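Entry 0007
Protein: Right handed beta helix domain-containing protein
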Amino acid sequence: MFHVSPEGDDSWEGSATRPFLTLERARSAAREAAGDVVVRLRGGVHVLTRPFELTEADSGTVYEAYGYGTAEQEEPVVSGGRPIKEWRERDGVWLAGVGDLEFRQLYVDGRRAARAAVPGLPGAAEATATGYVTDSAEPLGWRNAEFVHRGVYPWTEARLAMAGASADGGRTVITMAEPGFGRAVELYNSTWEGNTSRGPGLPTAIENDPAFLREPGTFVLDRSRPGDHVLMYLPLPGEDPARTVVIAPVLETLVRVAGAREVAFKGLVFADATWSRPNRPEGFVHYHGSGYYEGGGVETAVLGEGASVTFPRDSVTVPACVRFEDTVGAAVEGCRFTRLGASGLGVSGGEGLSVRGCEFDTLSAGGIVVSGSRATTLEDNRVRRIGLEFSGSPGIAVTGTRGCVVAHNEVREVPHCGIVAGTGEGIRILRNLTVDTMQVLADGGGVYLSGPQGEGAEVRGNVITDTRTPYNFGLYLDYGASGVTVEENVVMRADNTSVLHVGPPLEDVVFRGNFWDADPVGHDDPPGGVTYEGNVTIKDERELNAATEAIRSRAGLLRPRG
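Output (structure tokens):
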């Protein structure tokens, strides 16, 4: 057993009284020790200057909070952040030189500060082949602006950098950075109800320029001089640069575990990481969920007579700040993932990983993203306030898996889907609770399952309430989902509870014994591939709650948490 403390020393032996200072030193000691090893982290902030990586050589090692599982459990924070201390003031704004640091988030006394923004282009504006024109002169002074395009499609949100602006008579010509803008023009093309649109359209918001720094509590990272970036923060009343703790996330990856067996993390907090990829000229050309477009061509989906939409032939997934790749029997238990600039936890490949009793909050992208793994278990986790920057991100996303179980999780306050399962085999989505999903973007659900699922897939005992936006399906099976039993779920307060007619059509899908507060779309004429039997619609909420008390009491977290 070894110990690590922010007050330790790597020249010590790693005992409880003489702990190591760094995780790297503890890793080296664990590799030299015989048998499985436990590394205990004392409370406080353990600052990483580079990603902490574990490999096959670290198999069998457990990293846990000191006192884990007892009333004396401490809170070790594994942080990729850097405190900003050297401030100067100008006209009420705090300024600090940060060199070549790239970050998109800022945390002030633990609060996520918003990037300074304005609601769209000023003046009479219109799109051009290379950007925009407007009759306002304001953009001539912008030097860091990032254009946000929320709802290009109802389920998308692009982020594109501005390259420059010039005066042309009484107009301002805005040129957007390439290749991002060109990719957006290539991807976003649709026809609907006789109307055709091409490109991202006018921005819904514009962020991160000093000219926008008007609202107290907001910040800008001025990157106009390469290698000499300046952080600007407009403080809230009462904040003092001598006392206020300001943390800039620096690392993009906190922890990477690759090829290890029986590695575990217990009771740790993973915090303060960023993801700078959208700062580049490529921008963030989002399509759906955690996927974004980096070129490679698009295809067209026909949605009906005279209706179509283009979609990427290939897409890339937003990364996670903590990653497990091709591990066997790994475990993440009782941990918290917070203040992260991408997704929280990413799992790719491998077998038998379990994530239990964890908290995911204050994340720019998704909570948990799993792809291509076998026998992964996600149980008793709470996901909330995620997708704060990349609004298409689901709370929990699973695709290409075999035998994955998603059970007893609570997902709430998310901008798009709560739980998403893509094509896979035998997934079981059991007794989860989703509340206040689809808060920002449309066309999704509290639980969304897409594509064939082999045999034996289940969506059972889930409670799905308060699915927001004007177009959604609380419990949504889509894109030729097949081999699924949908049973004993409760869906209420959604725009639509569910839908039976989708394209490609559902096959070998059974809806049985579900409770709704409104009939699903197509319930009175189920397609040939759908069995619809024994479902109950109760419009009165009190009666519905009474009838479903047993189901609701078993859904959500196994262990209530404050």
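Curator remark: The helical segments are 23-32, 180-187, 541-547, 549-554. The radius of gyration is 25 Å.
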